[in-house]
Amino acid sequence: MNRRSLMVLCATVLLCGCQTNNQADYVQIGYGPSFDVAHAQCEMQKGSADQGYIAIGSPGFVAGAGIGNALGNLAAEDQYMKNCLILNGWKRAPHAQAAAATATVAAGASPTPYGVARAPGSWINTALLDWSDANNKCIAGDKVACGTRAKLGARLKAAGINPAPV
User: Fold this and answer.
1) How far apart are CA 151 and CA 147, in angstroms?
2) What confidence tens digit (pLDDT) does each residue in 19-57 have?
3) E strand spans, 52-150
4) Which of 78, 88, 125, 138: disulfide with 146, CB 3.0–4.6 Å?
């Protein structure tokens, strides 16, 4: 009995050691709510990823099915949280980049709206964000930015998108 208890304890410690739910592990990759708001929204909805189970048989089989279902639900909830946070503009960062993002936030500056790289998705996302930046600079009087805005606007219009300031 002691050996079984030790194995359960070790498995619990291993599973608990894998939890990384800290803002320091995330970087902002797009526009959206703050990390705290996005995380709270996703946290409230992650239970929708859970699956139920029915098990008939010996008590050991039913217990094993329950444990297996619980582990499967944990994996589904983790995947849901990952996808939900991406949709809200946050992504888990590689370890080397998470430290840089944390230092930026600790210094009082907000991270760039695009995170480590430009916005995710096709070239259109990046072009729209670049067009918006150039438009803001052009309005402020930067003539070079006006030329950039015109070039990006032409490319976007050729793709069927008519950029407009928000």
Assistant:
1) 6
2) 554 556 788 777 778 888 888 889 998 888 888 889 999
3) 90-92
4) 138
